[in-house]
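Sample intake sheet
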Amino acid sequence: MKLYNYFRSSASYRVRIALALKGLEYDYIPVHLVRREHLDETYTAMATSRLVPLLQDGDAKLTQSLAIIEYLDETHPQPPLLPADALGRARVRAIAQDIACEIHPLNNLRVLRYLTHDLKLSEDDKNRWYRHWVESGLEAVERQLAAQPARYCHGDVPTLADITLVPQIFNAQRFECRTDHVPQVMRVFEACMQLEAFSKTQPSACPDAA
């Protein structure tokens, strides 16, 4: 397998965690978003969405981190990243989507670049935008976790929800977002970071980290 990704991309980090939890080997291929390498013809020929990550497994080329992770879970079922019961799977997916669909799209690089380059927002205003959506979005996750406390987002083993949560906290910390209002979120984050699958795949540990 080959993973085309960017060290600071939270969506890429999700897939790195999943591959590590599964114990799967892969070739790490960096695609530098700030240098716009994702817009190069050689990359866009493979990734029509012009986004990272992209996982190549044989002849198959997969995009969108949550879809990639579920593919990995179906093709390499141990350890499972989704609960065995339908209700549990629905809850885990809901938490993951609270982050991946409600928080992350509003604060990824192309949105932030549009705010400053096209709408001419100042860096301070851009950062206020970022912090607002991250901090308020994490409140929804906090309520989910507080309603059913466990070691991880759902139960005693990490799932798709944890894989999605941890990279978002890295983003929050990078932009100095407030997190004291989400103690359950941070408790789960700290528990995850005790695991090598989360700590050894973090942005600063990547070969293209700068």
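Comment: DSSP finds nine helices and four strands in the chain. The mean pLDDT is 95.
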